[in-house]
Design brief:
Pfam families: PpoB2 (PF09948). InterPro entries: PpoB2-like. The chain crosses the membrane at residues 18-40, 76-102, 114-139, 159-176, 214-243, 255-273. By secondary structure, the protein is mostly helical. Helices cover 72% and strands 4% of the residues. A two-stranded antiparallel ribbon has the order 1-2.
Length: 274
C-alpha cells in the first residue's frame, strides 16, 4: 500500500484503526497480566490445602478456611476476577466488529454525520460479559458452599463435571448456538440484521450489548467449562480463549464447533460412568 498517495480520509482511517487495535491489544494484555498474577498465587509449594479455599484479595489469591463464609468484599473481588478474565478471553474475538464500527464511525464523521464514540459500543459488549461474570461469581459461591469445588476451583464431583461437559457438548450442536455463532462470524450480517449502525451513545451501547449477547449465546457453555478444568488453570483458560477465537474467525468454525461438541459429550459421559 502506497501511503504517499493516501487521501486525508484514508490516512485518518489508518491512524484510527491503529489506535483501536493498540487499545484492544493493551486491554487484553493488561487483563492477562492480572490473570497471570492471580494464577501465580495458586501455587502453594506443595502445601496441603485440605480444608481451605482460594479467594482473591484484589491483587493475588489468598487462602481462607473452607467453612468461612464469603464476605461482601470477597464476592466483589471474585466478581472482578471473573470480569477481567472475560475481558482477556473475549475481547480479541470482538476486535473485528469493534474495528468495523470505528472505521464506519470515522467515515460517517467525514460526512458530517458522526456516530457515538467507539467506546460506547465496546462498553455495551463488555457490560454483557460483566453480567456473565456476576452469574459465574454467584455460581462459584454456591458450589463452594456445597463443597463441590476444590481449592484450585475445579469440580470435585464427577456428576457435576460430567453434567457440565455433556451440557456444553450438546449445546455445540443446538440451533441457538449455531445462530449466535453465525452472527459472531459475520459482522456484516450482524449489522444488516440490526438495520445498520446507531449514531447516538445509547444506540451504540445497545448495539454493542446486542453483539455481546450473541457472543454470550455462542460461548457461555464453553466458559462454564472453567468449573471443570479449574477457574484459575492457565492452560485451560488459554485453551478456551483460543478455541472461542478460532470458532469465530476460522472458515471451518462451525465444523470445529460440532467436532468439539462430540469430544465434550464423550468426555462428559466417560466422567459420569466412572
Amino acid at each position: 500500500m502506497n501511503t504517499a498517495t493516501d487521501t486525508p480520509l484514508e490516512a485518518v482511517l489508518r491512524r484510527d484503526g491503529l489506535i483501536i487495535v493498540t487499545s484492544i491489544a493493551a486491554l487484553t494484555v493488561l487483563a492477562w497480566a492480572y490473570i497471570l498474577r492471580l494464577a501465580a498465587g495458586m501455587t502453594m509449594g506443595g502445601m496441603d490445602m485440605m480444608g481451605y479455599r482460594m479467594i482473591s484479595n484484589g491483587f493475588e489469591m489468598a487462602m481462607a478456611p473452607a467453612q468461612q463464609a464469603w464476605t461482601a468484599g470477597d464476592f466483589v473481588m471474585m466478581f472482578v476476577m471473573w470480569a477481567v478474565m472475560m475481558i482477556g478471553m473475549m475481547v480479541p474475538s470482538a476486535a473485528p466488529m469493534i474495528l468495523i464500527y470505528a472505521r464506519s464511525g470515522r467515515m460517517a464523521a467525514a460526512s458530517a454525520k458522526p456516530f457515538a464514540a467507539t467506546g460506547w459500543f465496546a462498553s455495551g459488549y463488555l457490560a454483557v460479559w460483566s453480567g456473565f461474570a456476576l452469574v459465574a461469581t454467584t455460581a462459584q459461591w454456591a458450589l463452594e458452599r456445597l463443597a463441590l469445588l476444590s481449592p484450585e476451583m475445579a469440580s470435585t464431583n464427577n456428576v457435576l463435571g460430567g453434567v457440565i461437559l455433556v451440557a456444553a457438548g450438546l449445546y455445540q450442536w443446538l440451533p441457538l448456538k449455531q445462530a449466535c455463532l453465525s452472527q459472531c462470524q459475520s459482522p456484516v450480517l450482524f449489522i444488516q440484521r440490526l438495520g445498520g449502525f446507531r449514531r447516538g451513545a445509547v444506540g451504540a451501547f445497545r448495539m454493542g450489548a446486542t453483539h455481546g449477547a450473541y457472543c454470550l449465546g455462542c460461548c457461555w457453555a464453553l466458559m462454564a467449562l472453567l468449573f471443570v478444568g479449574g477457574v484459575m488453570n492457565l492452560v485451560w483458560i488459554a485453551a478456551l480463549a483460543v478455541f472461542a477465537l478460532a470458532e469465530k474467525l476460522m472458515p471451518a468454525g462451525r465444523l470445529l464447533s460440532r467436532v468439539a461438541g462430540i469430544g465434550l459429550l464423550a468426555a462428559g459421559l466417560r466422567l459420569l460412568v466412572m
